[in-house]
Prior knowledge:
Layout: H1 3-17, H2 25-32, H3 36-43, H4 46-69, H5 75-92, H6 96-107, H7 109-112, H8 118-133, H9 141-157, H10 159-165, H11 170-189
Helix pairs in contact: 1-2, 4-5, 5-9, 5-11, 8-9, 9-11
Amino acid sequence: MNKEEHIKTTAKDIFFLKGNLxxxxxxxxxxxxxxxxxxxxxxxxxxxxxxxxxxEAVETMRNQLDNVIYSKVPxxxxxxxxxxxxxxxxxxxxxxxxFLITExxxxxxxxxxxxxxxxxxxxxxxxxxxxxxxxxxxxDPIHFVMNLFSLMAYPIIMAPLYRKLFDLNKQTYADLLKxxxxxxxxxxxx
Length: 190
């Protein structure tokens, strides 16, 4: 792995795995075992490194979810795959959602994008179709999508508080989160 990729990987681990959302360039350099000036050489500024890591994180997740959404499988299989892919990613990087939300809110990132996600439109249409067939309870399909992602992401975002409230160690909480894959599917489809 070259130095530039090593720095990006280190920054991603600091932000998404360790939860240091406001890491400084020096902290990233120290963790990567490089001189801070090397970060400036490759990325020009701390903000550009943050933006790059953010964009790559969004693109990675988007590609994974799009692959599931556009797959030619029955809806229930697709839903199970979507839950599996999303939960695996957020379990791998537990602070990724917090980082993305912080960046979106602080920089109004989504407000700059004019184009709607074709994959999201496709998925909402499929949800609506399944509701019309009676395989899902009828409601606004947007509620279904919001519930889906809330049921998956909220326990990750709130992990530090929940672990403290319920006096759970990291492994016990991680085991609970792994159980959520099947639980989320049952909640939405029963």
